[in-house]
Amino acid sequence: MLDCGVMARRIAIVGGGLMGLSAAFHLCRADPGARVTVLEREGVGAAASGASAAGVRVMGRDPAERALALASLARWPDLDRELEAPTGYRRGGGLRVALDEASWRAAPAWVAEQQADGVPVELVDAAAARRLAPGIVPACRGGVHCAIDGQADAMATVRAFATAARRLGARVEEGAGARALVVERGRLTAVERDDGRRLDCDAAIVTAGAWTGALLATVGVRLPIETRPLQMLLTEPAPVGLAPVLGAFDHQLSLKQLGDGAYLIGGGWPARVTDHAANRYELLDESVKASLDTARTVYPPLAGCALARGWAGLEAFTPNDLPMIGPIPGIEGLVAATGFSGHGFALSPTIGDVLSRLTLGGETKLGSGLTIRQMSQCKT
Predict the structure, then answer these.
(1) 38, 175, 200, 211: which is deepest, by most CB within 10 A?
(2) Euclidean distance between CA atoms 380 and 377, whole angstroms
(3) What's the predicted TM-score (pTM) here?
(4) 10-53+155-224+320-375 belongs to which homologous superfamily?
(5) How far apart are CA 113 and CA 55, in angstroms?
(6) What is the pLDDT of residue 367?
């Protein structure tokens, strides 16, 4: 908290997705005197955050982000109470099945490597896998189970963080885009809005997802990120029978059954960007068919479920699929987080805390290879 008599710190956050809203919540909680403003070009969660599959997992993470994932998953069971708003979270576990002998032979080493970093995964045989997920394909040899994995509701979680941030004093402005950052004598001093007005600030956090690169380019920063639209499919409701989030080795699949019985199908299948600036995309018939075929192959009960709708989220990807998080070298008061590469949803509680600490000047520990070092290489 700021000392009495010291002017309140003004902090701008560009991007009203999960990372920006989580940062706003953590900033207001850490420094109740701060004046935190979130600028969101459309509505909160209008881009990748709201379009997410909303998986909450640590299984299968890159070693560089396992510590972040474990820290975040420790918070998810109590997050509704912490935010005083519902996220739709439930911990049903995660199960990745092996459908051929080669995948099954490789599974023990995959398990051991993660267990060495404290990830609570276990090898399960075919009978145990079928008890966890009745209805999986008979060809299943076995699988890997992570009891602490789970799922949430994407838009409910976005709204929960927005509600909590506002309750603590953050101003969340929707329909308020940013077109440039203003740097004077090596320090971030303002954000220029789309309408030309200037938001003066002492620090700024850029969490604009697939639009982060364009905004940072206004102050000479180049990031190695590209936009990829990832497809999601939703079926009509069916009888409830699948508790864990289901995946399969060597298959593009993330399958969840929601509370109303509908199946949510992801796995990284691509859509096509039609208008990046306007956040527009189109689904590809070949991706829709391939995703449905894969899901029905792994989990045959899906064969009788009609497709209700599909959508995509424009995601920012880095060359190594790891996020870039940290202060921007050479510009005091500017922090960014981007490049979550389709798997940032579960990390949002911890990422918001990290961004808050970096902005307020506190100490924080980031996983190896995650960031400040990467940010140090991005400016041209």
Answers:
(1) 38
(2) 8
(3) 0.94
(4) FAD/NAD(P)-binding domain (3.50.50.60)
(5) 22
(6) 46
